[in-house]
Prior knowledge:
single chain; 424 residues
Amino acid sequence: MALVTDPADEVFATSPAPGPAPAGAPEPSPGHARALATVWFTLFLDLVSFGIVIPVLPFYATHFGAAAWVVTLLSTGYSAAQFVMAPVLGRLSDRHGRRPVMLISIAGSVAAMLTLGFAQALWMVFLARIISGVCNANVSTAHAYVADRVAPSQRARYMGMMGTAVGLGFIFGPSIGGLLSRPNWPELPFLVGAGLSAVNWIMAFLWLPESHRPNRTPGPPPPRASLLKALMQREFWQTQLGVLVLVSFGFFVAFAAMESTFALYTEAAFAWTAKETGQFFSLIGVVIVVVQGLLVGRAVSAFGERRTLMFGLCALALGFACASAAPMGWMLPLAGVCIAGGNGLIMPSLNALISRTGGPENQGTNIGLTQSAGALGRILGPMLAGAMFELIAPGAPMATASVMALFVCLVTFLLVREPRPDAR
């Protein structure tokens, strides 16, 4: 049975399979592929809007008198907003539907970019980054939308397709920001970002039908989802969701540690400039897109989500270890292929496993908790990496990230269960 019936959007189609549909598979509807394409574009613009400010935001903030350490707080504020709001938006989408949450968050992205573009003081720059972090926490809602519309056995493949949006946004965002940077018009990248998000909102309004009709049950609403609250509950860590939250946290600590110190490491060890570092991260983005678009679905079909996740973590650990010990700079792209390939296998497999931990009534909440754990990892990872870079050695953060990836792989091997192929 084909999961997609809209012939205009073949890119999101699956090949027909003989026999009955898998248990729990949602029935396709007209515009199914168009809706998934809209979600794809939303995730792409989330990463474009995140990346478009990277080349210009430090200079834009210093224009308002920000010191270097204040500039770094902009990234911390962004991730902190995601940490708080990812489970909140996921819970709201479980209670009120995915469509209104997506529309409001996309509109918020427009507002964040316009606030940046028309900022008159440093506090407005901080406000814009916090709004952007809140709205980009809709990644949990986007993945819950995919889980609503796709059969469990196909989720890793579709999560991989959504991952290509992240990879392409990672490639194009900084490039667009750099190309649009004008000393006499520093607001231009932000205004263009606002325009792209506005187009995205129109697409979502026209082509994004509701995928989740919540059942209204009498009585008080369920307790508010919070990662901090979950941390205090011992029984939470004994569940499969708790283990996957830990895996998400460990992965993002390791990856953020590498990401935040890589430029400093390559400058100290190989005299790389911003040009070489930019080319390296472009390579990372391209490999992630290829792996998530072409390989992850086949890997999950052959090995299952759990083993694919473990393969990705092992590749990530190998890449970090090789990068930290590389004697010459030309060897770093080889390590980069391992890092990007591992990343490309990890995220779709992890999101597919998370989607199987609950039903439609708590998809958004569960994915939001793991996204919140990832945001916390992106906050702590750079802090720990910076201290190790200063106090131990330039290659210490990546060596430690390799050990962390191996530890997360061990946790996956011991505690994560492989779901049945038709499990919902």
